[in-house]
Amino acid sequence: MTDERRCLTLRVVVPDPTQRGAGVEVKVLVDGKDILADAFAAGPGVDPRHLLVPGGPLVAAAVPHEVLLAEASCTEGCCGALYVTVQREGDHVVWDKWRNPDEDEVDLPAFHFDAEEYRREVDRATTDRSWEWPARTVARLLEQGLREHTDWLAGWECELGAVSAWPWEPDQVNVFFFHPGRSAITEGRPWLQFRMVLPVSPDDPVGQAELLAEQLAAADPRQVAEVSGGSPEFARQLGYPWPQHLRG
């Protein structure tokens, strides 16, 4: 194992809006080289909403932990994913023990980074929102507000799943939530996922996110959202119609 210090760059890539289905991803460059392109071709890098968050998975600590960097477009269970173990050792950060559940070995070496330079790059990438478009900013702020006030949805027997904004739909955000909650899935009880589409504009994202949160808290969101997951039988038991486009 070499102790040669490397340079880490985290680059957020937003696909062209015409690429329907393509998501935002984090490219990982070591000494300017895209290591994901070389080691994993089955899918994109992880969305920054999962990787570049305060106190997120890339933060290095003395206790090693595994980080998902990329996942197959068809899901990890089908064609694999790329994981790395991150650990701080004294004045440097080590990335090693590369793993792809779909392969016997991953052809990548251990990388050593200067701890302070590494921290600065992770902090820079986490705080840089210059790549966001208005709807993406609204989605991030709305999700943050809803997770800080879980009682807003809990009052309607709902639990937040995610708030998403996609490049090919630049004028809207999508709110996904579960009824009665995620625990019903593991407990074998009837459950449904709902999707609510909310229009956004180029106006102040902070104000829009606050207004949308107030609207979600003011009335039962299930009355205006559409069922997007679960099963026809669960919908029947819970008293909701099963959408025509989900019928096989």
**Strand fraction:** 25-35%
Query: The biggest beta sheet, please?
Result: 5 strands, mixed
Q: Structural class per helix/strand content?
A: alpha+beta
In total, the number of strands is: 12
Helix content: 25-40%
H/E topology pattern: EEEEHHEHEEEHHHEEHEHEH
Mean pLDDT over all positions: 93
Cα-atom radius of gyration:
20 Å
Intertermini distance: 54 Å
Shape: globular
Domain unit count: 2
Low-confidence segments: none
Strand sequence of the main sheet, in spatial order? 1-8-7-6-5
Quaternary state of this entry equals single chain
Number of helices: 9
Distinctive features:
248 residues; alpha+beta; 2 domains; 5-stranded mixed sheet
Overview of this protein structure:
Helices cover 29% and strands 28% of the residues. It has 248 residues and is of the alpha+beta class. It folds into 2 domains: 5-127; 134-246. The strands form 3 sheets. It has a 5-stranded mixed β-sheet with strand order 1-8-7-6-5. Strand 9 (159-164) and strand 10 form a beta hairpin. Helix 5 packs across helix 8. It is globular. The chain starts with a strand and ends in a 10-residue tail after the last helix. The model has no long low-confidence stretch (mean pLDDT 93).
